[in-house]
Specification:
Strand order of the largest sheet: 2-1-5-3-4
Number of helices: 2
Number of strands: 5
Structural class: alpha+beta
Shape: globular
Number of domains: 1
Strand content: 15-25%
CATH architecture: Roll
CATH topology: Ubiquitin-like (UB roll)
Distance between the termini: 35 Å
CATH superfamily: Beta-grasp domain
Largest sheet: 5 strands, mixed
Helix content: 10-25%
Length: about 110
C-alpha cells in the first residue's frame, strides 16, 4: 500500500527541498513517524511536547479534513493523497503561526 504525501512549501527548508514523499503508513500516527524519520527537523513542528499533533497542523486525505474521517483512527487506503497544511494566522501575538511556538526557528 502506498500513500502520496504532499508537504507545504513552508517545510522545504527542513526537507531538502522535497515537497512530496511516499509512505506505507497505515494511519496518521504511522505517517507522522515516517515523516519524522525521513526529516527529523520536522518533529518539533508537527508534534508538541506530549507527542500530540500541533493544533496548527492540518491533514487532508483526498481533500477531506482527516478530523471528519476519524482522525488518528482513519486507516489509509492505497492511493490516498495526504496534504499536510500548517494553518497561517494573522495578528500580533508572539507565537509562530507556522508551529505555534514562541521564539522558534521556523522562519
Amino acid at each position: 500500500m502506498s500513500v502520496r504525501v504532499l508537504l507545504p512549501n513552508a517545510f522545504t527548508k527542513h526537507t531538502e527541498g522535497k515537497k512530496e514523499i511516499q509512505s506505507n503508513a497505515a494511519n496518521l500516527n504511522d505517517l507522522l513517524t515516517d515523516i519524522e524519520t525521513e526529516f527529523p527537523q520536522l518533529k518539533t513542528h508537527l508534534r508538541d511536547e506530549q507527542g500530540q499533533v500541533r493544533r496548527f497542523i492540518n491533514f487532508y486525505v483526498n481533500e477531506e479534513d482527516i478530523r471528519f474521517l476519524g482522525n488518528e483512527k482513519y486507516t489509509f487506503k492505497d492511493g490516498d493523497e495526504v496534504l499536510v497544511i500548517p494553518s497561517i494566522a494573522g495578528g500580533s501575538c508572539s507565537c509562530c503561526s507556522y508551529c505555534g511556538q514562541e521564539d522558534c526557528t521556523c522562519c
